[in-house]
Please model this.
Amino acid sequence: MIFRSLAQLSFILIILSVSALCRAQDKDHQANTNYSNCKNAEQLDASTPLFTRVQSTPVDVLKMFHDAGMSPEEHHMTKEESHLVKSAFEMLPPLHQRVLKEHLRSISFLDNMPNTALTSIIEPDTPVRHYHITFRAAILKQNVSEWLTEKERTCFDNKDISRSVKVECGKLNAIFYVLLHEATHVVDGSLGLLTDLNTAENSTYNSFSSDFPP
Ligand SMILES: [Zn+2]
Model:
């Protein structure tokens, strides 16, 4: 394949890298979270701007970490971090923004969270699904290359000092990619595109997704 410009090649490399990370991050989900169900029922006002939906982490999510012997704590956002989150929401594709307005109840940020992010269903038995996304606050300080490098290195034995792994794909902040990934879970679950996200033990795949090779 011939790339018409360096920019075009860079874009494709970023897409490939993020695609690989999505798989790693989903493995992260399965290991740590399994799409937990929160029970913090509240009304959702679709007119509320997405970036203002930062709230405390649902008690069910915190309990899940505590039960696993971990102690993540609520992160208090700085002004700069809040601005970054606003920019990340504004960069989402129109479909994501439209679905999130109707289905994203809230987001939160935790310090000392083991995985990158977690999308949780709030009250799974209601006719309209609402979601909460919990992010590891440390990603707010990482650019995409730093974050991808950190993730990729978890796949290798770091005792071998003759090799090192580094991902270079620009300086854009990691939250843009992580939000896109988690927001896509909300789009998927809300529109039933790939799977009926309920819990990992109770996922049902439609023919579109089951026909994909693993
Ligand atoms: Zn995922």
Summary: Residues 6-210 form one domain.
